[in-house]
């Protein structure tokens, strides 16, 4: 099975803790040992936001701020690389072609941001599309896709399953309201829609949840099932726990 796992910076490194990074690395290593081809994309989280707001106050322009954000995503990616040890690239991969080569060689690929004016949500979707992944998993700090921003709207409800087109519409609505934050960004949702990529959005703060989603399709987040995708992927094993 060929999977891309997107790990938000606020999930992997809300603060600098070796144990948390180690726990995520353990899950990735286990899945790789089971024969899974894994591309991981790491976000910048709160640290990236702090650097960006400080540099904005210093007069940096938006592209410069994005470059700073990319640097922080790559720092976080280096933490994961440090914890993964062998069978992983020695430095964060910088583009999709290089990522494809790493995966073809049978290694775990770890990357952060790629180019300005997007986030690692979109990088993850693009990597999944480029490598023709069976599954894309967003390990975020929220428990799935909601009908509205749950921090802003008490009536927001979590979707168990939505189509990619519904994902695009939902995210577009959430992004329209100032200050709201969506679990994945609109560009990522559009890439998922065009590629027909089966996607799961879940709370990834407990890394074992990522493992269950990849192994069995078992999770408490949101399944994004693009139109035309079959009912149940054949790669999911029966959960025999
Ligand atoms: P993130 O992907 O971490 O943004 O990238 P985020 O939405 O805050 O995600 P979480 O909180 O980690 O889940 C951090 C910043 O880096 C720049 C953008 O400015 C983004 O806001 N970035 C990242 C890019 O410009 N291009 C990229 O490919 C990735």
From TrEMBL:
Gene3D superfamilies for the chain: Acetylglutamate kinase-like
GO-annotated cellular components: cytoplasm
Example of a GO MF term: UMP kinase activity
Annotated UMP binding sites: 44, 66, 114-120
Residues noted as binding ATP in the record, renumbered to the chain: 9-10, 45, 49, 140, 146, 149
Catalytic reaction equation(s): UMP + ATP = UDP + ADP
Subunit structure: Homohexamer.
Function, as annotated: Catalyzes the reversible phosphorylation of UMP to UDP.
Protein name: Uridylate kinase
Gene of this entry: pyrH
């Amino acid at each position: 099975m060929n999977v891309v796992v997107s790990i938000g910076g606020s999930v992997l490194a809300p603060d600098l803790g070796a144990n948390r990074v180690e726990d995520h690395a353990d899950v990735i290593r286990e899945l790789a040992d089971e024969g899974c081809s894994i591309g991981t994309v790491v976000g910048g989280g709160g640290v990236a936001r702090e650097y960006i707001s400080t540099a904005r106050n210093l007069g940096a322009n938006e592209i410069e701020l994005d470059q700073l954000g990319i640097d922080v995503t790559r720092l976080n990616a280096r933490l994961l690389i440090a914890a993964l040890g062998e069978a992983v690239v020695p430095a964060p991969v910088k583009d999709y072609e290089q990522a494809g080569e790493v995966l073809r060689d049978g290694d775990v690929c770890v990357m952060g941001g790629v180019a300005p004016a997007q986030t690692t949500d979109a990088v993850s979707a693009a990597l999944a599309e480029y490598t023709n992944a069976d599954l894309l998993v967003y390990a975020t700090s929220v428990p799935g896709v909601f009908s509205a921003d749950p921090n802003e709207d008490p009536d927001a409800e979590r979707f168990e399953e939505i189509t990619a087109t519904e994902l695009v519409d939902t995210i577009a609505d959430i992004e329209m309201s100032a200050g709201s934050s969506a679990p994945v960004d609109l560009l990522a949702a559009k890439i998922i829609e065009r590629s027909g990529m089966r996607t799961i959005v879940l709370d990834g703060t407990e890394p074992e949840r990522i493992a269950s989603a990849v192994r069995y399709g078992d999770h408490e987040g949101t399944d994004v099932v693009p139109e035309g995708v079959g009912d149940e992927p054949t790669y999911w094993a029966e959960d025999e726990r």
